[in-house]
Amino acid sequence: xxxxxxxxxxxxxxxxxxxxxxxxxxxxxxxxxxxxxxxxxxxxxxxxxxxxxxxxxxxxxxxxxxxxxxxxxxxxxxxxxxxxxxxxxxxxxxxxxxxxxxxxxxxxxxxxxxxxxxxxxxxxxxxxxxxxxxxxxxxxxxxxxxxxxxxxxxxxxxxxxxxxxxxxxxxxxxxxxxxxxxxxxxxxxxxx
Length: 192
Fold this sequence. Notes:
Blueprint: H1 35-38, H2 68-76, H3 78-89, H4 96-110, H5 114-128, H6 137-143, H7 145-158, H8 166-174
């Protein structure tokens, strides 16, 4: 049914050419081969694997003088700041209330809300290609939770989001002329 000739590709060819001949199952060993073993180190990586250039945060970790109101809010009620961040970072799939409630629940149960909030810092950095600065995200949140939340809040605010109105209102504000309300019906059904 298939030809008995096995198809072999040189280790330094990347990506491997498409199979033009049927695969010979007798040559398969069943031993997994890592990509490092298959591709030589001189082969270029695909574009989606190559690291993107990272940019700096718009404000520093301790630049609380830029937004004193948010710093006070974060100091007394960090769940509100975190809720606003989650709504924007999750693009509306998590509401401010849900994010804040989860933050509060984790804080009450574990006493360490940074277990949850550090993942949103990582997600935010991934969306905007930000440096992991001054150290890894979990340590930043564990050592200085309030400063980390304030920096993330300022970053989103500096990127044009009005943090108080949420994701959906920001989208409507940025795309004028597009309404999210259903069209109104003029006239009703009538018999002719």
